[in-house]
Design brief:
Length: 340
């Protein structure tokens, strides 16, 4: 089954062609990072307009590099939630038009399910069930993945996502956008014990997380140092922040996996590219005799291949959409619609 997949949930236009859910025939990406770096973060209106300007040419390129034509497409999969509403609408409306014109099924895909599915591409033998930690710019959660489409959240951030924490701190430190890679690079030469940062615990909810207070604490430290004209060790601040975020994520994942009876832990999302977090997950999994799956860096961030992969399993489960499909800025993964 040939699935033509699209993702325009934030500031990257992504198009891919995927065969039978696991074989990526082509995957194209247009990043707007340089444009939004001028503003220190994503400007939704600019992101939407650039999706409009790029999506047709990128689609043509994806088909060309796959060695196919539009008539070879069996279904169209698209991210419809969550994300920036204007950006999502570009991909959803393009997908609806393509599906209608080719008379092929339209498959709506939840973006977070797509991130989880990136691991199916990286590890062809990986199958549910397993415990998954999803950490990105907009979402941080721990999920019990019972099946390809049966996913239950057992813990989530009560406020900010881990990726947002990284991006905001990087901006205040003057490291630019996107903040995650910049902080990661800076942290490599830092002392991760120099700054003692808060590691919050949610009473009565052992798997829930909070990153807002951590973000505020770091920003206050930076501002106080600037006001007192004190020298701030940027590398050590970045390293201390990465250590603290890792300490919030990794132990919860290990305990949750043990409680739910899993010996497989999967990590997904853009923040999974962070070198400290990856290393800590590798060590924790080894120490606890658990199998670990983390996608390669090119599959950690937003891409359409993961949407095509998840779209295959959504279609197999009977999920399809009509031309009335609408984009949604936020949707819990448990409330993802089965048939639209």
């Amino acid at each position: 089954m040939i699935i033509f997949a699209l993702d325009s949930s934030c500031d990257e236009t992504a198009v891919a062609v995927v065969r039978n859910g696991r074989e990526v025939l082509s995957s194209e990406l247009y990043s707007q990072a340089d444009i939004h770096a001028l503003y220190g973060g994503v400007v939704p209106e600019i992101a939407s307009r650039n999706h409009v300007a790029r999506i047709v040419r990128l689609s043509d390129l994806a088909l060309k590099n796959a060695g196919l034509t539009k008539h070879d497409i069996d279904a169209v999969a698209v991210t419809y939630t969550p994300g920036l509403i204007g950006a999502l609408l570009v991909g959803v409306n393009f997908a609806k038009g393509l599906s209608l014109s080719l008379d092929v099924p339209l498959i709506p895909v939840h973006h977070i399910k797509g991130h989880i599915a990136a691991n199916y591409i990286a590890y062809p033998d990986l199958k549910p069930p397993f415990l998954c930690v999803v950490v990105s710019g907009g979402n941080s959660l721990i999920a019990d993945v019972r099946g390809y489409t049966d996913i239950c959240v057992v813990g989530r951030s009560r406020d900010d996502a881990a990726g947002e924490c990284f991006d905001k701190v990087a901006r205040v430190l003057g490291l630019g956008y996107p903040g995650g890679p910049a902080l990661d690079n800076a942290s490599r030469s830092g002392n991760d014990s120099l700054y003692n940062l808060p590691c919050p615990v949610i009473a009565g909810s052992p798997y829930d997380m909070s990153f807002s207070g951590l973000k505020t604490s770091v920003i206050n430290l930076i501002h106080n140092a600037n006001q007192k004209n004190e020298t701030l060790d940027i590398a050590s601040m970045a390293a201390s922040l990465a250590r603290t975020v890792s300490e919030i994520l990794v132990p919860r994942a290990i305990v949750a996996a043990s409680e739910f009876g899993y010996d497989k832990i999967v990590v997904a999302g853009g923040v999974a590219a962070n070198s400290r977090i990856r290393a800590d997950f590798v060590k924790a999994a080894s120490d606890n005799d658990m199998e670990l799956f983390i996608p390669p860096l090119y599959l950690c961030g937003d891409n359409a291949a993961m949407i095509g992969c998840q779209g295959f399993y959504e279609y197999a489960a009977g999920k399809k959409a009509s031309v009335t499909l609408d984009a949604k800025a936020t949707t819990d993964i448990e409330n993802d619609l089965t048939v639209i």
